[in-house]
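Let us work through a complete example step by step.
Step 1: write down the sequence.
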Amino acid sequence: MTLDEKLEQFYNSAMESATSQNIEIIEEYQKSLQLIYDEHKEEEIRKADAAYRAESEKLLREKNKDVASESINLKRKLSDRAYDLKVQLFEDVSTKLQDYMKTSEYNDLLARQIKTARDFAGKDKITIYINPTDAAQKASLEASTGVELTVSDRDFIGGIRAVIQEKSILIDNSFLTRMEESKNKFAVG
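Step 2: predict the structure and record it as tokens.
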């Protein structure tokens, strides 16, 4: 083998070895880059998922806050409307009571209430009060029931109130008390 052939063989061998090493280095570098890329990709996906979850939770909290706020507003409106309806209802009832108090049925009711209170008292002394607006019917009620009546100095809309002092008993059949009891018990919805 001549020197040129030997040089060429050495050159080819060195080139093959260098190319082989070069290919190995490149493959190793590519694997390393691929590994870095995969890790970076996983990290970015984790970050994106975390950001997505955080934003989703934030939006859900905001939505829940808005829903709660709207719910409170609706309850407030409902409560205001219920109050308005209650006021309207009791104004209507008061008007109807005023109309009822002008009828003979009202006078019959007063007479029944007076007799019931008198019968309840038995032999005990009883003071029966009628409303100031019923003062005009006092004489006719006393005549029909046989009971002395007192016109109250306090307006209780209508009906009667009676007191049995000896037993500390108050009989309250006044429209005012009945209206207040009804208002306290009344609930819309």
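Step 3: interpret the result. The longest helix spans residues 3-100.
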